[in-house]
Every structure is written in structure tokens, then in C-alpha cells.
UniProtKB/TrEMBL annotation:
InterPro entries: Beta-barrel_TonB_sf (IPR036942), Carb-bd-like_fold (IPR013784), Oar-like_b-barrel (IPR057601), Plug_dom (IPR012910), Plug_dom_sf (IPR037066), TonB-dep_rcpt-like (IPR039426). It comes from Pseudoxanthomonas daejeonensis. It is a multi-pass membrane protein. It comes from the Bacteria. This is Energy transducer TonB. Residues 135-230 form the TonB-dependent receptor plug domain. The lineage of its organism: Bacteria, Pseudomonadati, Pseudomonadota, Gammaproteobacteria, Lysobacterales. Belongs to the TonB-dependent receptor family. Keywords: Cell outer membrane, Membrane, Signal, Transmembrane, Transmembrane beta strand, Transport.
Length: 1011
């Protein structure tokens, strides 16, 4: 088969994929760029897309300026036309995602000040965007092909200064000191951010994308619903050239280094031995995927198609932390995606996108002898399903030379299902570290017939419907941008623990006389207890988010641009019955920016930005507050272990025998479904962040540029569930309403709470809301604070077909008394419902937060030795996060500030009991220990390297790239236990020991053939 015939066959395959892809047809905002500059008044500037032949023309205004916006990313031929005739030879201009490429032209139609404009090869590229007032990093697929960058959107975002990995227990990224739950991700303008927890997003294969933009601050009013950062990605498109390609990626387990095992043995302050084991040295994983794509014209110059199919195979085998079980995980998933572009004419364009990232993983669990590496009997199987189908379509129309309209509608679907054959028959049983020594003495037997010890039976479906209108209108020195957007986000979710009683059991070591979380005392002679937790919830919940914006980009002078913007958001979270329960309207976000082209030649700019950004309420709040929640704890004495037979596998296991119940059922965490007046603040304010950026950027010469900028962010409020056991009516049983801690909280008061009559009451939570046990002192909660201060230095050398280099250093300080809507200190990721405000002692201290990485160094570079061999490298070095020691009590209070039983429950206090700790609460003596007082975790280094071999045949594009990640095999600790006490004055021996470490070295081989 000759090359041309093969290309046609590939395009036919791609067309079939596209037709299938259009089934879930939807629309979305386009991701584009612009070209602007100065030229002779009255001349016409014509841009022709070199890939599709699409042409745009604009007349230079009387002030000598011009602008062409809403351009698909790529290369264009720019030509000056005067009196119907071309002037000069024209120039090739690269349009980058989300930016404006500045091109100034002289009377002869050529570039002005050629020596100060960045020209790479034959293209003018955007090195200093004098029209932009934001901080962003742009990276295209050509640059990424030269570097050892893992094939994910997250890996691309981590190249940008100020972006660090979040708590590895629940993943995500921190942008500029924000938590992992505050970012937004767009693909071709479609918002694909998880709206349930805001900690993940839908994605597509690396080869599906053309360019990425990572916005770390100062973004336009067009973007909202984020107080962290924005990842803006655009997919590849078809062109007039018929093309195709194959790509194979291999990550064999044989080329991966071994995880280090970690063993910790210690003694608690009460003399009880404790231990923790983290075994991973037997783990292995292999990954392979095959990718095929094709693109070309369906109608030359008018209709273009890009389509892709990718088959992925993941195989993983791993032990649990104790090394007593072995899990074999397998997934074989196929991605499909297609992009259709229709240039209806030079003024009107339609873009259609559809893709699916559905995935399924099946895991089989067996018993395991770690010493002999022998697998035993099958103990169970589980299946998890994720991802979904996504679609977008965008219409862009130009009406005259100065007015552009854009309409879009889009759908983003995800699912999260987890199930097992044992779900109806077996309850889960966990062994706490306090019982670990005795469990080890038993031989670490299986203690449950359920294959999982942590996951629930989950049926979860999310669907986002997006619609928006955007307009641009050029009026002399003003470019007016305005629009509206609307999102309807629906969650259909039910969750329960497996087993007939729908209860999960945890076995703890216990000390007679100790106080349990339900207030009961451990009886004499009882040295082990079982806590059964019953948690059931579910329903269908909807949230709507609507906004409109207005922006004036004003060229005050040819070298000074002002960006004056205003965005107004409206959020409406609804119950399972469709009624509003959190509704916040008219949230005004002013944003003002400037950019000064200091030398008036596009090489040097000073810029700044001041703005406000609002964060919406996630759907997990609807789910937990507006659907009702049964969350009860029951404590039992452990009366031994009973040998049992697994009903699924026939294997033997030891089942805990429940003895006498200790104290009442603790139902204080239950949330009623019928009445939310005591669960939600009637007058709640939205969470927002203010940001100030000042920066400088300059071209040194055609290859080199550098810049420096400073950022200050402050988040002065929070929204979370707050512990309330006192109101103006007097003491009350504990309530957990969601509100703004430190601000007035309005809920429904009743005579049962001590109020004179039923009615609305307002609690000033800065001075009321909590009554200390014993002393009866009434206090409030500390005002929420979070600040981020950073200075960034960056130097860059552009690729010139020989080498490229980028280096950045960022000094930053992230401080406050709350991280945001998640709590990484205690690995608690239920967004907006963490332990920050479970007790006034939890947020008493203002200091370095979990994501505070004081120093960050990021380097990336590529070098082409000859036509066959090239090399790439990346290096990220960052200082460690703070180590905080959390206590469980504080002065003058008989109630605990955190759980005396579990490490993760209840946050913790900044007080450590040092004298009279076992006596009456009034006699206890405490010492204060603030955030970060126990030092810092170690620096981490991640060095990647790659070598690429290219077939030295001009007619054949065949490349093989071998990449090694974490070349030095650094496995430093990245997360530690933060609970210092397990009771007043009783230290936890495992405090400060690691719980997460860097992933070990691994390698990847990528074979690419484009034709």
C-alpha cells in the first residue's frame, strides 16, 4: 500500500470515529489567540492560516493600531494590503493559546525593529506579550516532545512556577498557595473540572492536545469559579494536508526501581508499644498504550477532521501496607476523540469536539506471605469505573471588521462506581495502629471477608451542562469584551458501607478509664474496643452557576494598555427535592490590570493586576447537607476473634467478636433531611480571594528573555461546617451548621435549645458558639486568614532548532490558620467539610500551611546534537513543607479538641499538656506549639532525562524517545503523621513518622511514526 492510499484509509477510519463521536453532541467555548500591533492607518492586514487556508482581514485604524481576535492557535501568514495590492513579502506569525502576538509593521509592509522581535525559524513568536496582564506559562506539543514530561495535564501544569503537588493522600495540585480543591481545567473552552470535590478533572491522551496554557494568576474576567489556577488546553485540529500517525508508549515494570519499605516501632506516652509498616518493595506495575490518529480535509479549505483512538493496558500488582495481601489490578480501556472544524466562510466558523475517557479497573485480592512472596487464596474482587463522555461545539462569527460573537454549549460527564460481589455479605474490618502489635502476634490474619478495608459501595454520576455567549467589539482605542455563561451541575450519588448492617468496624487498643468520643468510659478489664461506624447517604442534587462579565481593554497610548473588568457570579445549590438551600447572588469581582510597553517596541513590559475571585460551593455539600446523612458511631468491647469462612472465596479469616456496647450510639454527626434551618446559615457569604500581581518582562535578544513578578493573595473568609454547642439561648446539643466561621451565623432556634420561642437566632461566631466543658467559658472562633506572598524569577531561551532552556526560582510564603476547603494536615479531603472548625482550638494558630514550599527551583532544557540524536531534561527542587504537632486538648476545657481514639478525626489543637495531664482538666498545664514549630520536611528533588533518536530520512517522521523519571531515585518523605498526642499529655510514639514518599525511578519508551 502506498503512502497516499494509506493516508486515505486512515482518514476513513478517523471519519468513522468522528461520526460515532458526534453522538453526544454538545458545544463549548473555543480556545483561541490573537494578533495585534501597529501599522500604517488605512492599510489592510490579512492573516491566512497556513494549515487551513482560512483568511481574516482587518483595516488599520486611524490611530495606527489593529487587532485580529478569536484565532485558532497555529501559524499564519500575515500580509499588508494597500489599495488592493500586497505590500512587502509578508511574515509567518505564530498565534499562541490565550495570548496576543504583537507584530508592528512599517510603511513598506515589513517588520519594524526586526532586531528586537523574536523570530524563530521563519516565525514571529510571542515572547513578551505586551497586551497581557496575567501570569501564564504556555507550552506546545513540539516543546513537550523534546522533554521528559509525563503524559498528563498535571505533569504539564507542574512545569509552571508556583505549582506544587498537593497532599499525595488525595492528589491534586496547589497553585500559588491554594488548596488542591480551588483550580479549574478547560479543554477547548469546556470546563471539565470535577464539581463534586474539585480535586480532579476529565482528561484526554497527551497526543490529543496541541497546546497548553497554565494560568497561575491575574486571569481575565472571562474565567471564574477558581481561587487557585487554571489549566487551559486546546486539542489538535485537521488541516488541508492529509496526515496520520501511530504512537506506542511502554512503561515496563522491569525498568522501574523498587519502592523502599518502611518500618516504625515506638512506644506511646502511656507505655503502649505501637508500630506502623509500609511495604511496597514487591509492588510492580506495567503500562502500554497504542495510539492511532488521522487528520485532513473533508472539503479543502472548508471542512477538517482530526480523530484519534487509543487503547491502554494497565497491569499492577501490589501489597497492602502490612504486606499481608496481594492485589492484582487490571484495566484495558479505549479512548476515542474527534475534532471537526468547519470554516463556513472567512467570517463564520463551527467547531465540534467529542471524546470519552471512560475507564474500568478490576482488582483481585489474595492473601500473601511477604517473606516467601507466595500468593495464597483469593479473598475477593472489586471493580471501579470512572470517566465519561464529553462534547463541545462552538460557533464563532465575525460581523464586519470590529464585532465578533461566539456561542457555545457543552456537556461534561463523569462517573465513579465501586462494587464487589462481597458487598451484600461482608462488612469491612480495620485494625488501628494501637492494636497493631497484638494483630502482628496473631500472624496478621485477614479480619474480614470483604476484599476492601476502606472503600464504600458507591454509585456516582456527575453531569455538567454549559452554555455561554461571548462578544468582542473594537471601538477605536477600546476593545469591549462581554458575555454570559451558565453551568448546570447535577450529581446522582448513593454511598453506604458494605455488609448487612452497613457498618464498618475498626479495632482499637484501649486503656480502662479512657474517655471515648461518645463520652463513655472504657470499662475496667477492657483493653481493646471495636468502633462500628454506620454511614448512609444519597440522592440527586443540582447546582447552578451563572455569571456575566464586561471587560474594556483600553489602549490609553500606543504603549500603555489598561484592562478594566467586572464579573458577577451567582451560585445556587439545591436539595434533593430541588429547593435552594445555599444561594449567593451578585458576587462582584472587579479586576484591573495594566501593561506598559516601556520601549514601545514590544521587547520590555511592566505589568500588574488587581482582582477578586470567587469559589463556588461543591456538590459534596449538597450531598452531605441537603440529602440527609446517617453517620453514627457505636463502641463495643472486643470479646476475641472467631475463625470464619469467606462466603465468596471459601478462605478462612478471623472475625472480631463484638462484646458489650460501651455507652450510647454517638449520633451527633447525623444530618436530618427534612429541615435545613439548623444545618445551613441563612445569610452565608461566598468564599473569595483577592490578588495583587506586579511584574517585569524583557527580551535580552532574539533568543533570550527574562522576567520577575511578585504576587500577594489573601483569602479573608471561609465556608465550612462549624461545631456549635452554645447559642445566645444557652448551651445546646452539638450542631454542625455550614457557615462562615468568625462571622455571624443565623440558624433556627427552638425552645428545646433554651430559646424563649422558636425563631431565627444569630450567633456571633467570633465570640460565641462554643462553651468549654467544665469551666463553662463561652468563646468563638478565630477569624479565617490565608495569605500567599511570592517572588518569581524566570529566564528563558527559545528553541532555535539547536537548543532551548528555561529556569525559574520562586520564593514564597503560604501562611494562615486554614488551608482552604480541604485539610491536608490530617488527610481530610471532603471539600468544605473538614476539621478546621470542629473546635476553636483547631484554628487558633496563624503560621505556615501544608502547601508552603518556601523555595522552588524548576529547570527544563533540550539540546539537538544532530539530525539523529537529541536530549532533554527537567529538574524540580523544592524545600519541604512544615511539620506541625497537633495536640488533643487545650486549657480550661474538659472536652477534647480532637479525637482521643483516631488520628484523623477532629483536627487537633496547638497546645500540648505537660503537667497534671491525667488529673482534673482544671489542673492541667499546657505549652503552646504553633504551626511548623517542629521544623520542615526534607527538600525533594525530581530529575528527569530523555534521549530521542530520529530516523535520518527527510520523507519519514519516525522517532523513539527514552525517558527516565526521578533519575536519582529519590524517595524522600512527603507526608508525615501530625498528631502529637492521643490523650492529654500522652504522646503518640509514631508522631513525625512518614506516611507517603516520592515515587521511585521509572522509565518510559515512546515510539512515534507520523506520516
Amino acid at each position: 500500500m502506498n503512502s497516499r492510499t494509506f493516508r486515505k484509509a486512515a482518514l476513513c477510519v478517523a471519519l468513522g470515529a468522528c461520526i460515532g463521536a458526534m453522538a453526544p453532541l454538545a458545544m463549548a467555548q473555543s480556545a483561541t489567540g490573537a494578533v495585534a500591533g501597529r501599522a500604517s492607518a488605512g492599510d489592510q492586514i490579512t492573516l491566512t492560516n497556513t494549515a487551513t487556508g482560512a483568511t481574516r482581514t482587518v483595516t488599520v485604524g486611524t490611530n495606527g493600531s489593529y487587532r485580529l481576535a478569536q484565532l485558532p492557535v497555529g501559524d499564519y501568514r500575515l500580509q499588508v494590503v494597500r489599495d488592493g495590492q500586497p505590500v512587502g513579502e509578508g511574515v509567518t506569525v505564530n498565534v499562541a493559546l490565550g495570548g496576543t502576538t504583537g507584530v508592528n509593521l512599517g510603511a513598506e509592509g515589513g517588520l519594524v525593529n526586526l532586531d528586537t522581535i523574536e523570530v524563530v525559524g521563519s516565525r514571529v513568536i510571542n515572547r513578551v506579550d505586551v497586551f497581557s496582564t496575567e501570569v501564564a506559562t504556555n507550552i506546545n506539543r513540539e516543546e513537550l516532545a523534546r522533554l521528559p514530561v509525563e503524559q498528563s495535564l498535571s505533569a504539564v501544569a507542574m512545569l509552571a512556577p508556583g505549582v506544587v503537588g498537593g497532599n499525595s493522600s488525595f492528589g491534586g495540585m496547589s497553585f500559588g498557595g491554594s488548596s488542591v480543591a480551588e483550580n479549574s481545567v478547560f479543554i477547548n473552552g469546556l470546563n471539565v473540572t470535577d464539581f463534586y470535590r474539585r480535586q480532579s478533572f476529565s482528561t484526554a491522551p497527551f497526543a490529543f492536545f496541541e497546546e497548553f496554557q497554565v494560568k497561575t494568576g491575574g486571569y481575565s474576567v472571562e474565567f471564574g469559579r477558581s481561587t487557585g489556577g487554571v489549566i487551559n488546553a486546546v486539542t489538535r485540529s485537521g488541516s488541508n494536508e492529509l496526515r496520520g500517525g501511530l504512537e506506542f508508549t511502554f512503561e515496563p515494570s522491569a525498568l522501574a526501581s523498587t519502592k523502599e519499605d518502611h518500618y516504625f516501632n515506638a512506644v506511646d506516652g502511656d507505655g503502649v508499644p505501637v508500630s506502623a509498616t509500609y511495604r511496597g518493595s514487591h509492588d510492580r506495575a506495567s503500562f502500554i498504550k497504542a495510539n492511532a490518529w488521522a487528520s485532513g480535509p473533508l472539503i479543502k479549505d472548508r471542512l477538517f477532521l482530526f480523530a484519534m483512538y487509543e487503547q491502554r493496558q494497565n497491569d499492577a500488582g501490589f501489597t497492602n501496607s502490612a504486606g499481608s495481601s496481594w492485589s492484582d489490578g487490571e484495566s484495558s480501556d479505549g479512548f476515542w476523540g474527534a475534532k471537526l472544524d468547519w470554516n463556513i466562510n472567512d467570517d463564520h466558523r463551527l467547531e465540534l469536539l467529542a471524546f470519552s475517557d471512560e475507564a474500568e479497573t478490576n482488582t483481585a485480592v489474595q492473601t500473601y506471605d511477604f517473606a516467601t512472596r507466595q500468593k495464597g487464596v483469593l479473598t475477593g474482587e472489586t471493580t471501579s469505573q470512572s470517566g465519561g463522555t464529553n462534547g463541545s461545539a462552538t460557533y464563532i462569527g465575525r460581523f464586519g471588521e470590529n464585532f465578533t460573537a461566539k456561542a457555545m454549549y457543552g456537556i461534561n460527564r463523569t462517573r465513579g462506581l465501586a462494587f464487589s460481589p462481597a458487598d451484600e455479605l461482608c462488612s469491612q474490618v480495620l485494625v488501628d495502629s494501637t492494636y497493631n502489635a497484638r494483630w502482628v502476634a496473631m500472624g496478621r490474619p485477614a479480619v474480614s471477608c470483604h476484599p476492601s478495608t476502606s472503600s464504600s459501595v458507591v454509585d456516582h454520576h456527575d453531569e455538567r451542562k454549559v452554555g455561554r455567549l461571548d462578544f468582542e467589539w473594537a471601538l477605536g482605542d477600546h476593545l469591549l469584551r462581554f458575555g454570559v455563561d451558565s453551568e448546570e451541575m447535577t450529581t446522582d450519588r448513593t454511598t453506604r458501607y458494605p455488609g448487612e448492617p452497613m457498618m464498618r468496624y475498626t479495632v482499637f487498643g484501649a486503656t480502662p478509664g479512657a474517655i471515648l468520643d461518645n463520652g463513655a468510659t472504657v470499662p475496667a478489664g477492657v483493653d481493646a474496643i471495636v468502633m462500628g461506624r454506620r454511614r448512609i447517604d444519597g440522592g440527586v442534587f443540582e447546582t447552578t452557576a451563572n455569571a456575566y462579565y464586561l471587560e474594556d481593554i483600553w489602549n490609553v497610548t500606543p504603549s500603555l494598555v489598561l484592562n478594566l473588568g467586572l464579573r458577577v457570579d451567582n451560585f445556587d445549590n439545591k436539595t434533593a427535592s430541588g429547593e435552594s438551600f445555599i444561594k449567593m447572588d451578585n458576587l462582584v469581582s472587579p479586576r484591573v490590570g495594566f501593561s506598559w510597553d516601556m520601549k514601545d517596541d514590544g521587547t520590555t513590559k511592566v505589568f500588574g493586576n488587581l482582582g477578586r475571585y470567587y469559589l463556588p460551593v461543591t456538590n459534596i455539600i449538597n450531598y452531605n447537607f441537603a440529602g440527609g446523612l446517617i453517620d453514627e458511631r457505636t463502641f463495643y468491647a472486643l470479646s476475641g476473634w472467631n475463625p470464619s469462612t469467606n462466603p465468596i472465596t471459601g478462605a478462612s479469616y478471623m472475625q472480631p467478636v463484638l462484646g458489650a456496647q460501651i455507652g450510647p450510639v454517638d449520633d451527633s454527626f447525623n444530618l436530618p433531611v427534612d429541615d435545613l434551618r439548623q444545618s445551613v446559615d441563612r445569610d452565608m457569604d461566598a468564599v473569595y480571594q483577592d490578588e495583587l500581581i506586579l511584574g517585569f518582562q524583557q527580551m535580552i535578544n532574539q533568543a533570550w528573555s527574562w522576567g520577575v513578578n511578585a504576587t500577594y493573595r489573601r483569602m479573608p473568609n471561609a465556608m465550612d461546617d462549624i461545631r456549635i454547642n452554645h447559642t445566645p439561648c444557652g448551651p445546646t446539643s452539638t450542631l454542625w451548621p455550614i457557615g462562615n466561621p468568625g462571622d455571624p451565623l443565623t440558624i433556627w432556634g427552638t425552645t428545646a435549645m433554651g430559646c424563649a420561642q422558636d425563631g431565627w437566632i444569630t450567633i456571633d461566631t467570633s465570640s460565641d458558639g462554643y462553651i468549654k466543658g467544665g469551666s463553662g467559658e463561652v468563646i468563638g472562633y478565630s477569624d479565617p486568614k490565608r495569605t500567599y506572598t511570592a517572588v518569581e524569577f524566570q529566564i528563558d531561551r527559545a528553541w532555535d532548532d539547536k537548543w532551548a532552556f528555561n529556569a525559574s526560582y520562586l520564593w514564597s510564603k503560604s501562611e494562615g490558620n486554614h488551608e482552604g476547603p480541604v485539610n491536608s494536615d490530617t488527610n481530610y479531603g471532603d471539600t468544605g467539610m473538614v476539621q478546621h472548625w470542629d473546635h476553636p482550638a483547631n484554628n487558633e494558630d496563624y503560621g505556615p500551611l501544608f502547601n508552603d514550599r518556601r523555595h522552588q527551583i524548576k529547570l527544563r532544557g533540550a539540546y539537538k546534537l544532530n539530525e539523529m540524536w537529541s536530549f532533554g531534561s527537567t529538574l524540580t527542587a523544592q524545600s519541604g513543607g512544615p511539620i506541625t504537632a497537633l495536640g488533643v486538648a487545650w486549657p480550661n476545657d474538659s472536652l477534647g479538641a480532637a479525637s482521643f481514639v483516631t488520628e484523623g478525626s477532629g483536627g487537633g489543637s496547638f497546645w500540648h499538656c505537660v503537667q497534671n495531664c491525667s488529673g482534673n482538666w482544671s489542673q492541667r498545664v499546657f505549652e503552646y506549639s504553633g504551626r511548623g514549630d517542629f521544623g520542615r520536611m526534607p527538600w525533594t528533588y525530581d530529575w528527569g532525562a530523555s534521549v530521542t533518536w530520529t530516523l535520518p530520512a527527510p520523507e519519514t517522521d519516525l522517532r523513539i524517545r527514552f525517558s527516565v523519571y526521578n533519575l536519582l531515585n529519590e524517595q524522600e518523605v512527603i507526608n508525615q503523621r501530625a498528631r502529637y498526642e492521643k490523650g492529654p499529655g500522652v504522646t503518640r510514639g509514631l508522631f513525625g513518622t512518614g506516611t507517603r514518599w516520592q515515587s521511585p525511578r521509572y522509565a518510559q519508551l515512546v515510539l512515534t511514526w507520523n506520516f
